[in-house]
Design goal:
Layout lengths: L6 H13 L1 H17 L8 H8 L4 H9 L4 E6 L14 H12 L2 E7 L5 H4 L8 H16 L6 E5 L5 H9 L6 E5 L10 H12 L5 H11 L11 H11 L15 H16 L11 H4 L2 H14 L5 H11 L6 H8 L16 H6 L2 H11 L8 E2 L2 E2 L6 E6 L2 E6 L23 E6 L2 E6 L9 E9 L2 H9 L7 E5 L4 H4 L8 H9 L4 E5 L12 E6 L16 E5 L4 E4 L3 H6 L20 H6 L16
Parallel strand pairs: 1-2, 1-3, 3-4, 11-12, 12-13, 13-14
Antiparallel strand pairs: 5-6, 7-8, 9-10, 10-14, 11-15, 15-16
Helix pairs in contact: 5-12, 7-8, 8-15, 9-10, 9-21, 11-14
């Protein structure tokens, strides 16, 4: 089923292995020490054991006290602020009951915060968003630090939650760990129609009532938002990295198939403990350099979220694997784009799933030597089980081969007929530094922009200029002091509608920023995550209004057209950023901002440096 591995993938993987040798060995030594020590239930003090089981039913207490059956820890990101996480409300009791059916026990080890970026976009709370990932990692570690569990289930879906759960869980790489999705909401208002109303609102053509009605029709029920942003990129990532069950990412909540997959996730976690007769498979067995490369490949093949040029870097570093943007860019040159899901097309993730979904995608990549197949997953060794789709055979969960042909070639295509020969993620380099740009949704005629800079230090200043009618021309918006150390690197998604309006009016426009855009990066070229950031005296701090900039996605160039002598002579006076340090809890995150690493090393205060 698999072809010889593509030479570029092999070369990049070996480079990562060589680069990561020391940090990976340090990580694995830690895992080995924890695996050898085992859980503290063996020989645990009576008071400790009593605290562990005090609130449990008598039958569960007996099993845990006997120390014979596996005990499963659940880490949940449940809240009903996030539609994607609302279904998790019922999961703990559902899982506990199924654990009893299997003759084992399960317990909620802890909860982690989960904020909704859709609520905080453009507001002060967004400045906590990126660092919430690291808080989640810390919270996951606290939950599992009780050290009474043989396996763990991770319940999380959205933007920073899955990366944070991963970063925390992989520190307990000796445990059998399965990530458990809850699925996307059913399809509502089309993404294209939603985007049109947003642009109309930005121009003052419709009022707030019309905008709110449009948004409510798009985001309408429990489940993940259906566009292919960071949340759904997370789900793809966990599946292609072998931490989900095959085909489980995009099954809707509340369906019999979803319930069957959730039960099976628990059963696999139990089986992978090695205590029920099947071989032991821990998280550290699954997550290695090849698995991380598979994650990058999945992002490129599907046009996934640019946020993962931060998140996947930090996730990999948490396991001692060192990747950088050169790895993304080199792989992008050989990985074809096989999916078009909004914002890279009109379809949503339900359409993607119906067209063949992850099973079709992974079968195509494996069959063409574009994915490492010789890795471990929660299903065992090798990824062939992932080239299938789950179904209920007379009510019993089973997997079957995916259809040979895509159900909709406007959404999902084979390697022989890709939407693009490359993955649509580019590395830009020049005298402004290094940044990434996602071009899978950018039309070829908009991929090269040469225009004068409009410089602001706050996204609201650019919105004010647009609303005042002062941006009706070719321009490159330079939005700086948006990096992790300046203000926590908020997403600048609110800039998408006005910039798209200018583009539709015939102007050549682009964005350059040391901040983030979002998983919904769309049709306007955006050089994001620019490093070094302005607060670290990056060259972006020296850009003046009216400077000419060339942003060339085809050649990978981001160049400020100012000679080196003139640029060196320019002085930098950083703006007063004190307002970004107060209110909405930002006071608590000063330590995170001060110790955040660069964007290319994951923008993390925890894993900016390897072990």
């Amino acid at each position: 089923m698999t072809a010889p591995l593509n030479a570029t993938i092999a070369q990049v993987t070996q480079r990562i292995i060589d680069r990561s040798a020391d940090s990976r060995n340090t990580y694995l030594r830690s895992v080995t020490a924890q695996r050898t020590a085992g859980t503290q239930r063996a020989g645990m003090g009576c008071a400790n054991m009593a605290h562990t089981t005090a609130a449990l039913p008598a039958r569960d207490k007996l099993k845990i006290h006997a120390e014979r059956a596996p005990h499963i820890g659940i880490v949940t990101a449940y809240n009903d602020m996030l539609s994607a996480h609302q279904p998790y409300e019922q999961y703990p009791e559902f899982l506990r009951e199924h654990a009893r059916h299997l003759g084992v026990t399960a317990q909620v080890a802890g909860g982690v915060p989960a904020m909704c970026d859709g609520v905080t976009q453009g507001a002060a709370g967004m400045e906590l968003s990126l660092f919430s990932r690291d808080v989640i990692a810390l919270s996951t570690a606290v939950a599992l630090s009780h050290n009474v569990f043989d396996a763990a289930l991770m319940l999380g879906i959205c933007d920073k939650i899955v990366p944070g759960l991963f970063m925390g869980a992989v520190q307990f790489g000796h445990l059998s760990t399965v990530f458990v999705p809850a699925g996307p909401m059913t399809t509502g208002l089309s993404n294209d129609a939603k985007a049109k109303v947003r642009q109309q609102y930005a121009q003052g053509l419709v009022g707030r009532d019309a905008l709110l009605e449009s948004e409510a029709q798009a985001y309408h029920s429990p489940g993940t938002c259906t566009f292919y942003g960071t949340a759904n990129s997370n789900q793809m990532l966990m599946e292609i990295m072998g931490l989900h069950l095959p085909g489980s990412s995009f099954v809707n909540p509340g369906t019999p198939l979803r319930e069957a997959l959730t039960r099976e996730a628990l059963r696999r976690a139990v089986a992978n403990t090695g205590r029920t007769g099947e071989p032991a498979i821990c998280m550290a067995d699954i997550v290695d350099e090849k698995t991380v490369v598979n994650g990058i490949i999945g992002l490129l093949a599907t046009g996934g979220s640019t946020n993962h040029t931060l998140h996947l870097v930090a996730m990999a570093r948490a396991a001692g694997v060192l990747i950088d943007w050169d790895d993304f860019a080199e792989l992008s040159g050989v990985i074809p784009l096989l999916a078009r899901v909004y914002p890279n097309g009109g379809a949503d993730v339900n359409h993607f799933h119906a067209a063949g979904g992850m099973g079709f995608l992974m079968r195509e990549l494996l069959a063409n030597g574009l994915l490492h197949g010789d890795v471990f997953s929660v299903m065992g060794h090798g990824l062939n089980p992932y080239a299938t789709e789950p179904w209920l055979n007379d009510g019993v969960l089973a997997w079957r081969p995916v259809p040979e042909l895509s159900g909709d070639t406007a959404v999902l295509r084979p390697v022989s007929e890709p939407f693009s020969a490359d993955g649509g993620l580019r590395l830009l380099k020049g005298n402004l530094g290094r940044s990434v740009v996602k071009v899978s949704a950018v039309k070829p005629e908009h991929r090269v922009v040469r225009a004068q800079a409009v410089v602001v230090s706050d996204q609201h200043d650019l919105l004010a200029l647009f609303n005042a009618g002062e941006l009706h021309r070719d321009l490159i918006a330079v939005v700086r002091y948006q990096g992790p150390r300046a203000n926590g690197m908020p997403e600048l998604h609110k800039l998408t509608p006005p910039l798209a309006v200018l583009q539709d009016q015939g102007f050549q426009v682009a964005l350059v920023t040391d901040g983030r855009m979002s998983g919904a990066s769309g049709k306007v070229p955006a050089a994001i995550h620019l490093s070094p950031e302005a607060l670290a005296d990056g060259p972006i701090a020296k850009v003046h209004d009216g400077d000419w900039i060339t942003l060339d996605c085809e050649r990978g160039v981001l160049e400020l057209e100012v000679d080196a002598t003139t640029l060196a002579a320019r002085t930098v006076q950083h703006p007063d950023l004190s307002a970004n340090a107060h209110g909405t809890g930002r006071e608590l995150f000063g330590l995170f901002r001060a110790h955040a690493s660069t964007a290319e090393t994951g923008a993390s205060p925890l894993f900016g440096q390897p072990f």
